[in-house]
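To assess whether the prediction recovers the assembly geometry, we first specified each molecular entity separately, as shown.
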Amino acid sequence: MKRNIFIVITVLLCFILQSTVFRWLAFGGIAPNLLVIITATFGFMCGQKCGLWVGFFSGLLYDIFFGNVLCFYALIFMYLGFANGYFKQIFFKEDIKLPILLITLSDLSYGLVSYILLFLLRGRFHFLHYLMHVIVPEIIYTVLVTLILYPLIRMINGKLDGTEKRSEDGFA
Amino acid sequence: MRRKRQKFTIPSKYLLLIMTCVCVLFMAVTFFTDFLASPLSNFAGGVILPFQSGISKVGSWMNVRSQELKNIRDIMQENEALQAQVDALTIENNSLQQDKYELNNLRELYKLDEEYADYRKVGARVVSKEAGNWFHSFVINKGSLDGLEPDMNVMAGSGLVGHITEVGDNWAKVMAIIDDNSNVSAMVLSTEDSCIVQGNLETMDQGVITFSKLVNGETAVKEGDKVVTSYISTKYLPGILIGYVTQIQSDSNNLTSSGTITPAVDFAHLEEVLVITDQKASYTEAGEN
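The predicted structure of the complete assembly is given in tokenized form:
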């Protein structure tokens, strides 16, 4: 229960920050993608289902405000969260290399899917330009933010793990 | 002893499948109808928007402060150089003053100026911008309760910003003319030749947007010419300044030309906008009566 509240607050907070503060802190018009960070993080930290739901709701929030059709981004983020869930088995809390690798890959695939569905299909063929000016800068900025945001989520999540265990012990 | 009943759970693969179907269904529903629009927009307006408007105030404040710190050093150096320039400019200013009176007189005669004044406008503040990096829409803090409706034109300063695409009770989504999806029917003011102005993510780095399908452009239209909204546009009121031609070249068919336009609005620092509450449809009707 506590964890669910934590997840809801994180999703809302990240969305609000991303659409306000980070737009002001954008470098060259490019802002980091916090929603990808949390979707991927909850995916490999808490498993497929959790990643799936977090992805679905962050995407849905995006769709409500900025999407043209509902559930378009929800679908993309949902698959991102689910795919990241496969890495729960090889995920170690102390290791930061795997999270960064996964978040990079997630943001890359998010960028590629967005490009293909929203730009390529409308006849915008300069893929290299979009890669160099939108996708790659976004990944770099996102990874930089990950270095700050990920330890925070991990710490709070670890604390929640602790309280859950204690309460289970209490019942036993 | 009663065994604890196994909690029923769906395997995550099936959950993914179900949710995918749900998503596709919703996409289809929202694409063909606007059945879900009002409950969701109410949720957005009630829960998210208050936070966004608060935080974007803080965000813009921080932005201004950081700019200030960065600027102070430059300003010290500039100050000395500028002091010297002030003397030179004072002389120049005197001669320019005379030109200014002339300009003011001409402006009064200028039809464009008169038309802007006719439109009723409402001021609004930008509370959040498109969260991704692919498009350029933003949300303003006024909505249907303030009399806003979809398709209303949005301006900042003297230039066109875009038009409203969605409206909630206390918020409205604006699609900017620099958005990659945006198409505006426009004309070059000097020759009254019409063209299509398109937002383009590729050219946004250079701060320009593209125009195309300008008939017999290259001979008559020069760089620096004003581009305004056309009277044949269905959404945009006529004569609103879009920007200035920065580059023009003939298309391969030798009939039309295309090129780039520098928008009149600084989209990177957009904080307050004016929404024109006159709509094109009602405005033209009133004009005919």
